[in-house]
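Purpose: get a first structural picture of the assembly so the mutagenesis plan has something to point at.
Setup: two entries, given in the order below. No constraints added.
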Amino acid sequence: MAVVRLSGPESLAAVRSFFRPSGHVRELVSHHLYHGFLVDSTGRNVDEVMVVYMQPPRSYTCEEVVEVQCHGGQQIVRAILDLFLSHGLRLAQPGEFTYRAFMNGRLDLAQAEAVARLIHSRSDAARALALSQVEGRLSRAIHLFTEKLRRELVLVEAWIDFPEEDIPTQDTTRIKSQISEIIKEVSVLLDTFETGRVFVEGASILLIGRPNAGKSSLLNALLGEDRAIVTDIPGTTRDLLEEGLTIGGIPVRLIDTAGFRASVDPVELEGVRRASDKIHSADLVLLLVDGSRPCHQEDLLAYQACADVDTILVATKSDLGRAELDPSLAKMHRIDVSAKTGEGLDLLRQAVARNFAADGTELGESVVITEKRHNDALLKCRESLRRVAASLESRASLEFLSLDLRDALDSLSSISGEISTEDILGDIFSNFCIGK
Amino acid sequence: MADYGKKYQVIVVGAGHAGCEAALAAARMGCHVLLLTMGLDTVAMMSCNPAIGGLAKGHLVHEVDALGGEMALNIDATAIQFRRLNTRKGPAVRATRAQADRMAYSARMKRVLEAEPLLDLKQGVVVSVETIAGRAVGVKTREGVDFYGGAVVLTTGTFMRGLIHVGLNNYSGGRAGEPASLGLSDCLRDLGFTVGRLKTGTPARLAGRSIDFSKLERQDGDTNIRPFSFLSGTPEIEQAPCHIAYTNAATHDIIRSSLDRSPLYSGVIEGVGPRYCPSIEDKVVRFPERNAHQTFLEPEGRCSDEVYPSGMSTSLPPDVQLLFYRSMVGLESVEIMRPGYAIEYDFVEPTQIRPTLEAREISGLYHAGQINGTSGYEEAAAQGLLAGINAALQATDRAPITIGRDQAYIGVMVDDLVTQPTLEPYRMFTSRSEYRLLLREDNADQRLTELGRSVGLVSDQRWQVYQEKMEGILRGGARLAEQKIKPSDRETTASLGLDGLRNGVSFEDVLRRPEIGIGQLVELDGDLAKLAPAVLEQLEISTKYEGYIQRQLEQVARFRELEQVKIPGTLDFATVEGLSNEVREKLIEVQPETLGQAGRIQGVTPAALAVLNIHLRKKR
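Result (structure tokens, whole complex):
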């Protein structure tokens, strides 16, 4: 099945000229479903369809919208589109419905962006996140901050502009505690960005280990197909290989590296250097050691290289036996896997998902920052709030406080909706009895 | 009808606070000016409270002064009490407020008008604006005399179709005891203007001798008077006190039980009143939890016993007014001399005028003051001045001026007026300004005197005072940078609390410390001591608040980027693709002249602005 959506003032007229509803239907009533046939100008039936008309502004774009549910074949959809094009309509550009919804004020910027994410989301978790934002969860959180800050700004402005009026005496203690409270809440939201980013953009997971520790075999086992070249000759995989898959709902890029090796071969040295560089830009490192044999000095070399990043220790080749590891490695939680039998692969997948604090269903419930733009705006907001706090501490005059409070609100408004001076004044007049 | 014969270059209708500034400005710029008023005895009348200034309003008065207007000089000469507000806050939000002697204020302004050689002050009631091919050419009066001139400035106050409400009685009037102006707003409607209706109100005037001031808290003026004008010396006057009284539960009961006789609550009044200036009945209804409201009892002048109870405006019937005023402590046997009333009047939607205050559709016609939906003497004066300047510039074939939001409160106000719909009488507040820290009373001359000079309104005397100040700031700034305090200067470091100073520091660095004032440095340096107090003040502010001022200057730079993208007057917004109908309608209504202005129209989203920007770029 396919849906053809028409939006704009000509939509209903266009559908009217081709749609022959079953039964005695005079007018299409808004938000009712009608059965019938689309008929072209020669009287030929194009398709049997269901049609729903949505009167503005109760539609996705806030414009006049008609949706035609038709059969799903490409030829049929093409023929229906041709029908409407012949009436003078044009094809929508990618994302145009959302753009119009945004322009017509139905979606705020954060929601519109989330819709774009929804369309482009690569995983279920990302879809859940994007959906929660479309529903305005992030917007609601931002709105809450905005409301709180606005309340404080209203007080500050009232104290500035109406010194002789009958308003509560100036006392900044409450503002102080409010601001530090909001700083905390903004920080909590900011902390979700790492997780959120991983869910939307995907996590990069680096596989390192000495040559022939089984990196390529594990990669292939996780991907379920032969991507990396696997041979018994150590050091076969010389290039970084990037592969995409989903683990625990998280889009993941597995990055294979040339083995860590004490070598003088310039090609291998270059490979090792590149792997070391990659370690610090990866979200997670899988440190692979051959679990069937005692540790090699090169295992320790690899271990040291990933000392200060999130690392999971993977002992490979469990089908060949289980050897004790070096004491320095034994401190880490060890997951035994066999690429050959598949043993331990699920445990590994779970450990990876846990590392990103996540299974997707849980994430869908909470507010998570996924956009860099939102993250930057919140960072700026927090910076302004910290200046407000500092001004309060140094007992600076209120107009300086106001400057930073307004900056903080401006940062928030870049995520969703503006508040104008008129809004602030409106609040002052409704909260305080002002008037000479 | 008889043509008066004499050709004027600028005709100003109305001699209130806007009209007086407009007429004086145009005449001082060398134009032959006619100022027509309905009553020669009520020039520059304070129809409501007998005070000028306060937060943001005081800023406006300083700006009017810096441009060469009259209001500041007039109030400095006729004030009976001065107070500086917000003295504990920073310099940007300190403001001067003065109680005026109402009759003296009016009389002095009349004398100033009469003394202006190129200005003819006449009594007459204008009934229509005459136009030829979309251009204002003169006015017709009820008396049957027509006057012709180059430009017409309308400052009609509350007079156009004024309707006074006292209780459920109402009658036509422009102000208590004065007739309304009928016909003019019909003429404006016929010219194509959208005319709306607003409401305002005023309290009763009380007999001072019937008030027991001994029961009330007294509020005196400042001992150190800071006048409004950059040209005024310290006025040597004996100041009159104000007193503070309160309403109580009994007052509120009386008001509540009489609401059925209130024109506001019985629906007789259609016009919208200001939220920031509610009547006492409004306050009682909207804030039921309050058991007292404060009022300042302000004297109306030295030769009058009338007292103005601020914050107590009312349109309840006179018998209720008497009852509720008498329920207040100190006012038990008060006598009302004039009852309070509400007034509805016509205004012309200011989105129909340009930032020059000239009507978009009728060239040579300017609107200023309450006709633009504003309230307040200071707001009116500022607009009158700008309208007068631009009318004179047009009459002498010169390009008009506009004033930016980053330059002055006048600019903020005019931009708000021509961009935002008027939902209530507009009053200035400092919070309306994005660049509040830059728009201070103390630097209004630095912001505007050069502009005033360039149009020919700033006198040689004012120009000289200004230049001396600027020169002093330059000299003083250099002095602060070069003078150093050495650690070996034990006496100095001790007096400034700089014990333990390791390296030498400049005066400038020392002045940045919050605990140090410029007065302490003046005592150490003969050169600084020679500078005027106004100069020292600027040095102190620009040094102490340098960081904040810098931030605001950066904001201004960003603001100007959009402000510089001009939208050609020929652009048909209906042809811009990708705009929502709502945005398109707003743009067509307001006809913004720059991209920045377009962005300030409510409902014009950043996305819509981007679309407009792209369209303008494509056109280029």
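The interface with chain B takes residues 100, 102-105, 109, 157, 160-164, 166, 394, 396-400, 402-403, 420-422, 424-426, 429-430, 433-436 of chain A (CB under 8 Å).
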